[in-house]
Design brief:
Layout: H1 3-13, H2 26-36, H3 49-55, H4 63-77, H5 86-106, H6 132-143, H7 149-181, E1 187-194, E2 201-208, E3 211-218, E4 223-231, H8 235-242, H9 245-253, E5 257-264, E6 267-274, E7 278-279, E8 282-283, E9 286-291, E10 297-303, E11 311-313
Antiparallel strand pairs: 1-2, 2-3, 3-4, 5-6, 6-9, 7-8, 9-10, 10-11
Helix pairs in contact: 1-2, 1-5, 1-6, 2-4, 2-5, 4-5, 6-7
Protein backbone atom coordinates (compact mmCIF):
# COMPACT_ATOMS: atom_id res chain seq x y z
CA UNK A 1 0.00 0.00 0.00
CA UNK A 2 1.11 3.55 -0.66
CA UNK A 3 1.85 5.91 2.28
CA UNK A 4 -1.33 7.96 1.71
CA UNK A 5 -3.53 4.86 2.05
CA UNK A 6 -1.66 3.91 5.21
CA UNK A 7 -2.25 7.42 6.54
CA UNK A 8 -5.99 7.18 5.80
CA UNK A 9 -6.10 3.87 7.67
CA UNK A 10 -4.34 5.45 10.65
CA UNK A 11 -6.73 8.39 10.65
CA UNK A 12 -9.67 5.98 10.57
CA UNK A 13 -8.29 3.91 13.43
CA UNK A 14 -8.08 7.02 15.60
CA UNK A 15 -11.88 7.19 15.49
CA UNK A 16 -11.96 4.30 17.97
CA UNK A 17 -10.40 6.62 20.57
CA UNK A 18 -13.74 8.42 20.81
CA UNK A 19 -12.11 11.77 20.01
CA UNK A 20 -13.08 13.78 16.90
CA UNK A 21 -11.23 12.66 13.77
CA UNK A 22 -9.40 15.83 12.82
CA UNK A 23 -5.82 16.81 12.12
CA UNK A 24 -6.03 19.33 14.96
CA UNK A 25 -6.48 16.42 17.36
CA UNK A 26 -3.09 15.02 18.52
CA UNK A 27 -4.52 11.48 18.74
CA UNK A 28 -5.71 11.56 15.12
CA UNK A 29 -2.54 13.27 13.93
CA UNK A 30 -0.27 10.86 15.80
CA UNK A 31 -2.17 7.82 14.56
CA UNK A 32 -2.08 9.03 10.93
CA UNK A 33 1.63 9.96 11.01
CA UNK A 34 2.40 6.72 12.83
CA UNK A 35 0.63 4.73 10.13
CA UNK A 36 2.90 6.25 7.48
CA UNK A 37 6.13 6.31 9.49
CA UNK A 38 7.48 2.76 8.90
CA UNK A 39 8.08 3.72 5.28
CA UNK A 40 10.83 5.99 6.57
CA UNK A 41 13.10 3.29 5.17
CA UNK A 42 12.58 5.02 1.82
CA UNK A 43 15.57 7.21 2.78
CA UNK A 44 17.76 4.20 1.96
CA UNK A 45 16.87 4.84 -1.68
CA UNK A 46 19.58 7.51 -1.57
CA UNK A 47 22.00 4.58 -1.90
CA UNK A 48 20.01 3.00 -4.75
CA UNK A 49 17.36 0.34 -5.28
CA UNK A 50 19.68 -2.49 -4.17
CA UNK A 51 20.02 -1.04 -0.66
CA UNK A 52 16.40 0.14 -0.54
CA UNK A 53 14.88 -3.23 -1.45
CA UNK A 54 17.27 -4.98 0.92
CA UNK A 55 15.96 -2.99 3.88
CA UNK A 56 12.38 -2.20 2.82
CA UNK A 57 9.75 -3.69 5.16
CA UNK A 58 12.58 -4.83 7.40
CA UNK A 59 13.87 -3.15 10.55
CA UNK A 60 11.60 -0.08 10.27
CA UNK A 61 8.54 -2.38 10.25
CA UNK A 62 9.59 -4.38 13.33
CA UNK A 63 8.04 -4.05 16.79
CA UNK A 64 11.12 -2.38 18.40
CA UNK A 65 11.26 0.19 15.58
CA UNK A 66 7.51 0.83 15.77
CA UNK A 67 7.81 1.57 19.49
CA UNK A 68 10.68 3.95 18.77
CA UNK A 69 8.83 5.68 15.95
CA UNK A 70 5.73 6.10 18.13
CA UNK A 71 7.83 7.66 20.91
CA UNK A 72 9.59 10.08 18.54
CA UNK A 73 6.32 11.14 16.86
CA UNK A 74 4.58 11.63 20.21
CA UNK A 75 7.49 13.67 21.56
CA UNK A 76 7.48 15.75 18.38
CA UNK A 77 3.76 16.53 18.71
CA UNK A 78 3.80 17.36 22.42
CA UNK A 79 5.04 21.01 22.17
CA UNK A 80 2.20 21.96 19.80
CA UNK A 81 -0.78 21.05 21.98
CA UNK A 82 -1.92 22.28 25.39
CA UNK A 83 -2.98 19.67 27.94
CA UNK A 84 -1.08 17.05 25.97
CA UNK A 85 -1.66 13.49 27.28
CA UNK A 86 1.64 11.86 26.32
CA UNK A 87 0.65 8.30 27.21
CA UNK A 88 -2.69 8.44 25.37
CA UNK A 89 -1.15 9.90 22.21
CA UNK A 90 1.74 7.42 22.38
CA UNK A 91 -0.63 4.43 22.57
CA UNK A 92 -2.70 5.54 19.59
CA UNK A 93 0.39 6.51 17.61
CA UNK A 94 1.85 3.06 18.25
CA UNK A 95 -1.43 1.47 17.12
CA UNK A 96 -1.14 3.54 13.95
CA UNK A 97 2.44 2.32 13.45
CA UNK A 98 1.33 -1.28 14.00
CA UNK A 99 -1.47 -0.89 11.45
CA UNK A 100 1.15 -0.19 8.78
CA UNK A 101 3.03 -3.42 9.38
CA UNK A 102 -0.24 -5.33 9.82
CA UNK A 103 -1.54 -4.30 6.40
CA UNK A 104 1.84 -4.91 4.75
CA UNK A 105 1.68 -8.46 6.12
CA UNK A 106 -1.83 -8.85 4.68
CA UNK A 107 -0.62 -8.09 1.14
CA UNK A 108 1.86 -10.08 -0.93
CA UNK A 109 4.98 -8.15 0.12
CA UNK A 110 5.01 -9.03 3.81
CA UNK A 111 7.14 -7.51 6.56
CA UNK A 112 9.79 -8.56 9.08
CA UNK A 113 7.77 -7.93 12.23
CA UNK A 114 10.15 -9.57 14.69
CA UNK A 115 13.53 -8.23 13.57
CA UNK A 116 16.22 -8.27 14.88
CA UNK A 117 15.24 -11.53 16.60
CA UNK A 118 14.47 -13.23 13.28
CA UNK A 119 14.82 -12.18 9.64
CA UNK A 120 11.71 -14.13 8.64
CA UNK A 121 9.28 -12.10 6.55
CA UNK A 122 5.66 -12.71 7.55
CA UNK A 123 3.12 -12.62 4.74
CA UNK A 124 -0.57 -13.60 4.59
CA UNK A 125 -1.10 -12.44 1.00
CA UNK A 126 -4.83 -11.73 0.80
CA UNK A 127 -5.10 -7.99 0.04
CA UNK A 128 -4.40 -6.23 -3.24
CA UNK A 129 -1.88 -3.43 -3.54
CA UNK A 130 -4.83 -1.04 -3.33
CA UNK A 131 -8.01 -2.40 -1.77
CA UNK A 132 -11.19 -0.31 -2.28
CA UNK A 133 -13.14 -2.12 0.46
CA UNK A 134 -10.56 -1.17 3.10
CA UNK A 135 -10.65 2.43 1.87
CA UNK A 136 -14.47 2.48 2.04
CA UNK A 137 -14.51 1.25 5.65
CA UNK A 138 -11.90 3.87 6.55
CA UNK A 139 -13.92 6.69 4.99
CA UNK A 140 -16.98 5.56 6.97
CA UNK A 141 -14.96 5.80 10.18
CA UNK A 142 -13.57 9.21 9.29
CA UNK A 143 -16.64 10.98 7.93
CA UNK A 144 -19.64 9.40 9.69
CA UNK A 145 -21.37 11.99 11.89
CA UNK A 146 -23.07 9.68 14.38
CA UNK A 147 -20.84 6.95 15.81
CA UNK A 148 -22.34 4.55 18.32
CA UNK A 149 -21.03 1.31 19.76
CA UNK A 150 -23.15 -0.48 17.13
CA UNK A 151 -21.44 1.54 14.41
CA UNK A 152 -17.95 0.64 15.64
CA UNK A 153 -18.99 -2.98 16.11
CA UNK A 154 -20.39 -3.08 12.59
CA UNK A 155 -17.14 -1.73 11.13
CA UNK A 156 -15.07 -4.31 13.03
CA UNK A 157 -17.37 -7.15 11.97
CA UNK A 158 -17.37 -5.94 8.35
CA UNK A 159 -13.58 -5.79 8.36
CA UNK A 160 -13.32 -9.29 9.83
CA UNK A 161 -15.87 -10.71 7.37
CA UNK A 162 -14.05 -9.10 4.44
CA UNK A 163 -10.67 -10.51 5.49
CA UNK A 164 -12.31 -13.91 5.96
CA UNK A 165 -13.82 -13.65 2.48
CA UNK A 166 -10.45 -12.76 0.95
CA UNK A 167 -8.87 -15.69 2.77
CA UNK A 168 -11.60 -17.96 1.39
CA UNK A 169 -10.95 -16.60 -2.12
CA UNK A 170 -7.28 -17.44 -1.74
CA UNK A 171 -7.99 -21.01 -0.67
CA UNK A 172 -10.54 -21.41 -3.47
CA UNK A 173 -8.04 -20.12 -6.03
CA UNK A 174 -5.43 -22.56 -4.72
CA UNK A 175 -7.95 -25.41 -4.97
CA UNK A 176 -8.74 -24.58 -8.61
CA UNK A 177 -5.04 -24.41 -9.52
CA UNK A 178 -4.19 -27.61 -7.62
CA UNK A 179 -7.00 -29.58 -9.27
CA UNK A 180 -5.93 -28.32 -12.69
CA UNK A 181 -2.27 -29.35 -12.39
CA UNK A 182 -2.30 -32.35 -10.04
CA UNK A 183 -3.00 -34.91 -12.77
CA UNK A 184 -0.19 -33.81 -15.08
CA UNK A 185 2.49 -32.98 -12.52
CA UNK A 186 3.81 -34.21 -9.20
CA UNK A 187 3.16 -31.09 -7.15
CA UNK A 188 5.55 -29.91 -4.45
CA UNK A 189 3.57 -26.80 -3.47
CA UNK A 190 1.19 -24.22 -4.90
CA UNK A 191 1.50 -20.54 -3.96
CA UNK A 192 -1.36 -18.13 -4.59
CA UNK A 193 -1.01 -14.33 -4.37
CA UNK A 194 -3.56 -11.56 -4.88
CA UNK A 195 -3.44 -9.87 -8.25
CA UNK A 196 -1.87 -6.43 -8.06
CA UNK A 197 -5.18 -4.73 -8.94
CA UNK A 198 -7.94 -7.16 -10.09
CA UNK A 199 -10.28 -8.18 -7.24
CA UNK A 200 -11.42 -11.49 -8.79
CA UNK A 201 -8.04 -12.66 -10.10
CA UNK A 202 -5.22 -14.39 -8.24
CA UNK A 203 -1.67 -15.03 -9.41
CA UNK A 204 -0.27 -18.51 -8.87
CA UNK A 205 3.15 -20.16 -8.81
CA UNK A 206 3.15 -23.95 -9.10
CA UNK A 207 6.25 -25.78 -7.95
CA UNK A 208 6.33 -29.36 -9.24
CA UNK A 209 9.14 -31.90 -9.27
CA UNK A 210 9.93 -30.88 -12.85
CA UNK A 211 8.70 -27.32 -13.48
CA UNK A 212 7.92 -23.88 -12.09
CA UNK A 213 4.63 -22.69 -13.62
CA UNK A 214 3.42 -19.11 -13.31
CA UNK A 215 -0.07 -17.91 -14.20
CA UNK A 216 -3.30 -16.27 -13.15
CA UNK A 217 -6.68 -17.74 -12.20
CA UNK A 218 -10.02 -15.97 -12.66
CA UNK A 219 -12.40 -16.94 -9.85
CA UNK A 220 -15.48 -15.84 -11.82
CA UNK A 221 -14.83 -18.00 -14.89
CA UNK A 222 -12.55 -20.51 -13.12
CA UNK A 223 -10.25 -20.09 -16.09
CA UNK A 224 -6.46 -20.30 -15.85
CA UNK A 225 -4.05 -18.21 -17.88
CA UNK A 226 -0.61 -19.80 -17.91
CA UNK A 227 2.04 -17.12 -18.33
CA UNK A 228 5.36 -18.96 -18.12
CA UNK A 229 6.59 -22.49 -17.60
CA UNK A 230 10.21 -23.12 -16.56
CA UNK A 231 11.92 -26.48 -16.40
CA UNK A 232 13.60 -26.80 -13.00
CA UNK A 233 17.41 -26.65 -13.07
CA UNK A 234 19.76 -29.11 -11.42
CA UNK A 235 20.17 -28.59 -7.68
CA UNK A 236 23.88 -27.84 -8.14
CA UNK A 237 22.99 -24.87 -10.37
CA UNK A 238 20.71 -23.39 -7.71
CA UNK A 239 23.34 -24.04 -5.02
CA UNK A 240 26.02 -22.37 -7.15
CA UNK A 241 23.85 -19.27 -7.44
CA UNK A 242 22.98 -19.24 -3.73
CA UNK A 243 26.68 -19.31 -2.75
CA UNK A 244 27.18 -15.80 -4.17
CA UNK A 245 26.37 -12.45 -2.56
CA UNK A 246 23.68 -11.77 -5.16
CA UNK A 247 22.28 -15.26 -4.56
CA UNK A 248 22.03 -14.73 -0.81
CA UNK A 249 20.49 -11.31 -1.40
CA UNK A 250 17.94 -12.66 -3.87
CA UNK A 251 17.00 -15.59 -1.62
CA UNK A 252 16.34 -13.16 1.22
CA UNK A 253 14.49 -10.83 -1.15
CA UNK A 254 12.02 -13.41 -2.48
CA UNK A 255 11.03 -16.93 -1.41
CA UNK A 256 9.83 -17.76 -4.94
CA UNK A 257 12.50 -17.60 -7.62
CA UNK A 258 13.80 -19.57 -10.58
CA UNK A 259 17.40 -19.95 -11.75
CA UNK A 260 18.20 -20.53 -15.43
CA UNK A 261 21.68 -21.15 -16.81
CA UNK A 262 23.45 -20.99 -20.15
CA UNK A 263 26.94 -20.49 -21.56
CA UNK A 264 28.04 -17.49 -23.59
CA UNK A 265 31.53 -16.62 -24.89
CA UNK A 266 33.18 -19.14 -22.58
CA UNK A 267 31.33 -17.93 -19.49
CA UNK A 268 28.63 -19.57 -17.38
CA UNK A 269 25.68 -17.27 -16.82
CA UNK A 270 23.00 -17.81 -14.19
CA UNK A 271 19.89 -15.65 -14.33
CA UNK A 272 17.39 -15.64 -11.49
CA UNK A 273 13.80 -14.45 -11.71
CA UNK A 274 11.51 -13.36 -8.88
CA UNK A 275 8.35 -15.27 -9.82
CA UNK A 276 5.95 -13.22 -7.69
CA UNK A 277 5.31 -10.12 -9.78
CA UNK A 278 4.47 -10.21 -13.48
CA UNK A 279 3.78 -6.87 -15.14
CA UNK A 280 3.63 -5.80 -18.78
CA UNK A 281 4.50 -9.27 -20.07
CA UNK A 282 7.62 -9.64 -17.95
CA UNK A 283 8.72 -10.36 -14.41
CA UNK A 284 9.60 -7.36 -12.31
CA UNK A 285 12.85 -8.35 -10.55
CA UNK A 286 15.87 -10.30 -11.84
CA UNK A 287 19.47 -11.10 -10.90
CA UNK A 288 22.50 -12.27 -12.90
CA UNK A 289 25.65 -14.09 -11.82
CA UNK A 290 28.53 -14.63 -14.29
CA UNK A 291 31.22 -17.31 -13.80
CA UNK A 292 34.33 -18.53 -15.60
CA UNK A 293 34.63 -22.12 -16.86
CA UNK A 294 35.90 -23.23 -13.43
CA UNK A 295 32.72 -21.79 -11.88
CA UNK A 296 34.49 -18.94 -10.14
CA UNK A 297 32.27 -15.90 -9.81
CA UNK A 298 33.37 -13.01 -12.04
CA UNK A 299 30.62 -10.46 -11.52
CA UNK A 300 26.96 -10.19 -10.64
CA UNK A 301 24.08 -7.77 -11.09
CA UNK A 302 20.71 -6.99 -9.57
CA UNK A 303 17.95 -5.89 -11.96
CA UNK A 304 15.16 -4.23 -9.92
CA UNK A 305 11.89 -3.33 -11.68
CA UNK A 306 13.37 -3.97 -15.14
CA UNK A 307 15.78 -6.47 -16.69
CA UNK A 308 17.40 -3.48 -18.43
CA UNK A 309 18.41 -1.91 -15.10
CA UNK A 310 21.85 -3.18 -14.03
CA UNK A 311 23.16 -2.67 -10.50
CA UNK A 312 26.60 -4.27 -9.93
CA UNK A 313 26.91 -6.34 -6.75
CA UNK A 314 30.26 -6.75 -5.01
CA UNK A 315 31.29 -10.40 -4.85
CA UNK A 316 34.78 -10.08 -3.33
CA UNK A 317 35.16 -11.62 0.14
Amino acid sequence: MDPVTHGVIGLAISAFSGDPVTLTNPVSLGCAIGAMSPDIDIVTRIWGDYVYLKHHRGTSHSIPALLGLAAVITAGLSPFFQGFNFFQVFIWTFIGCMSHTFFDILNSYGAKLFMPFTRKKHMVGILMLYDPMITLLCFLLIFANQKSSFFYGGIIISFGVYLGFRLYMKHYAKLIVTQYYQHGYKLVDVNVLPSLMAFHKWDYIVNSNSHHIVGQVNLVTKGLKERKKFKKPENEIVELFEETNIGRYFRDFTPLYYVMHFEEMGKIILKSIDLRYYLRNNFMHHATAIYDKERNIIESFFHPYSIKKNIPVTEAD
